[in-house]
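Dear colleagues,

As part of the handover before I leave the project, I'm documenting each prediction I ran so the next person doesn't have to rerun anything. This entry is a single chain, and its sequence is reproduced below.
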Amino acid sequence: MDTDVNELLVRDISRVVVARVAPAENASFRVVSDAYFANANRRVPSRDGGTEPLGWGVGEAVTLLTPIVLTAMTEAIQYLLVEIARTAVSRGRVAAAGTIRRLFGLDRHPDGGDPSAETADLAVELTDHQWAAVRRIVVDVAQRSGLSEDKAALIGDAVLGAGHNQDKR
């Protein structure tokens, strides 16, 4: 991942999700996220006693959700980068073809359409299947981190609420 841009993206989205599922952690979000990104071995904790992120474990009295959300969003954003890049490349080829047509003075598309329509909107919207995949990634990470199925589902739903509803506007 491109560290600067994607770290900021993970932080921004995670902050929204944490505000929804663990508002009490808002005050410590910056400190926890700084520690998370400073830790080169960001590992998802596992139920079988694997590495716990930043030393906060599921066995403690209070499990901090921020490192779990950060880990989940890191994986989800990696998935989204691949999906969106795939769509952008496909659309970019169509847009490039339209530009080349215009460079050679071809005002009409072979099927009679307007070549400028090829570049009109390169905005990407995720399908319901892609949003479901994002939710599955987040829930899986949360459950591997030792959260209950219900708590993991709550985080997954918060991620969808932070993004999927924006996509529908």
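The chain has one domain: 3-81+124-167. The first helix runs from residue 3 to 21.

All the best with the project,
I.
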